[in-house]
């Protein structure tokens, strides 16, 4: 138990470091700059709660599904299929955001090279940062990353200690608790930031491959996911508070003009919107293309401006803090992408994908090169961190909400409406971006809430349809005994539905020999280890054995008097066809349905369907039977005994 507690602490540290990407690193400074420590808490609390809730809920998911320590991995394998592109895009934007923020607000703020060489310098920096992420990711892997991050965590803790020791005048009364713009905190500007932050941060972890991979590995190690993510959320909260308080302390020092004094008092601004329309000549802040004031590099500029004799180890400690946070995100991204791409693209049967080398498809390096290109374009276009964050407050919100629903709401398991979801996500993105650039807070709120409202409608609408269908069937059944016309319709509908393809619902869970559902003979069982291959899914050849066993049980029920010792004919298989649709895994409930679909004078055709635990179609096919004399194996017409046995089920 003690070991599991320590293991959870190790994983919690890794969770916190991996989640301290560009968003947590520099936006905590911006929120403190705009709203004071109240704004910092608005950012930090839902961020930490989002992590803790993800761990708590995925622990429930892991316990609800069969499969032991592999239950969460088996669940994710099915759960992730409709979200594969979104998972990939989420990871690309997260890595790009981190590389962009570190390059722009750390290295771009330090005048280390002549202006003529600035771009060459930034290209080299981006390349080195990504290469370091690849190196550490390749070195550790998911099973050992917690140990690598433990060492990184100790270095980060030492860096924090050096920073606090160097800034020993840091006292509670020197940190401005109140926002620089008090009226903005209670006005519409606060809602324009608060609601998107709450929405985006609470659901954010659900589309992050790094967190899913960690949760799966934690469960494999028989460690509590919820406890690990509680530690992770708490450590992450402390890191955000430290960085935000450091920014608040810098704002109160003489080395930087007071934001409130410069803008609020002298210019008379009363809201964030008004402040953004001013162009204050403050060195630590910049004015973006949208004419808004940004201060992500506030602390970097302040430390760089200190006299050389007073700096000491402060710059090295602070830059190490930023570097460790970014590196532990990049190496985690590398490991997660390698795992995800290997499980999807590397095994894809798509002909175009098959033309590319398998090792290239499974490698995260092409993705890292894409991240490098996007980050450099962002630097050249003079973008800001918030331009990347817009995706997490609008575009990804609907997908994350639907992902949560598909984990816990049974009626949301139908195929993902990809076109509708993408269209709504794009509309929400445009609404949010337009609201941000025009300071229209209503549009900011609408862009964040619209995807959630659509997901709620999508799930509720499906549930309502199911309830209406069930109730309609009950009403018809109740009325059938009273109204002859309805009785006739009900009988006809039952006859038709009996011949249609439908997911099986066993009538008798303890029927060892199978049972009939209309014309279909149904047999259910649980797949076990002997049915699987080295990958963990049911071996393809087993499906024909499943069908064969079900066929024999069907014969046993349809022709109970058949005896091999006295029979005049044998039943042989002439041909067998099967189309594979989905995979099954160990401990999945497999249901095989078989029926007589056609016959002529010589041959009989049987049709079969195979379903999985969630009533999803795994495969379907057919087989042709022929009949031979039991003595000389000469071909026979279909025996009369077979006609009599099969006709009731044709």
N-to-C terminal Cα separation, in Å? 60 Å
* Content-based structural category: alpha+beta
Helix percent reads 55-70%
Radius of gyration: 32 Å
Report the mean per-residue pLDDT as an integer: 80
User: What profile does the largest beta sheet have?
Assistant: 7 strands, antiparallel
**Which residues form runs of ≥5 with pLDDT under 50?**
254-282, 463-477, 479-483, 485-510
**Percentage of residues in DSSP E strands:** 5-15%
Number of domains: 2
CATH fold name of the largest domain: Amino acid/polyamine transporter I
CATH class of the largest domain: Mainly Alpha
Give the overall form. Answer: elongated
CATH architecture of the largest domain: Up-down Bundle
Write the layout of secondary structure elements.
Elements: H1 2-19, H2 22-64, H3 71-79, H4 84-105, H5 118-140, H6 145-166, H7 182-186, H8 188-203, H9 209-220, H10 225-251, H11 259-267, H12 272-276, E1 286-287, E2 293-294, H13 298-305, H14 308-311, H15 314-344, H16 351-354, H17 358-362, H18 365-380, H19 385-395, H20 397-408, H21 418-437, H22 441-480, H23 484-498, E3 515-517, E4 520-526, H24 542-558, E5 569-580, E6 589-599, E7 604-611, E8 617-629, E9 635-636, H25 640-646
Antiparallel strand pairs: 1-2, 3-4, 4-6, 5-8, 6-7, 7-8, 8-9
Describe the structure.
The chain is of the alpha+beta class and 650 residues long. It has 2 domains: 2-392, Amino acid/polyamine transporter I (Up-down Bundle); 515-649, Roll (Thiol Ester Dehydrase, Chain A). It has 25 helices and 9 strands. The chain has helices at residues 2-19, 22-64, 71-79, 84-105, 118-140, 145-166, 182-186, 188-203, 209-220, 225-251, 259-267, 272-276, 298-305, 308-311, 314-344, 351-354, 358-362, 365-380, 385-395, 397-408, 418-437, 441-480, 484-498, 542-558, 640-646, and strands at 286-287, 293-294, 515-517, 520-526, 569-580, 589-599, 604-611, 617-629, 635-636. The strands form 2 sheets. Strands 3, 4, 5, 6, 7, 8 and 9 form a 7-stranded antiparallel sheet that branches. Strands 1-2 form a two-stranded antiparallel sheet. The two termini are 60 Å apart. Residues 254-282, 463-477, 479-483 and 485-510 have low confidence and may be disordered.
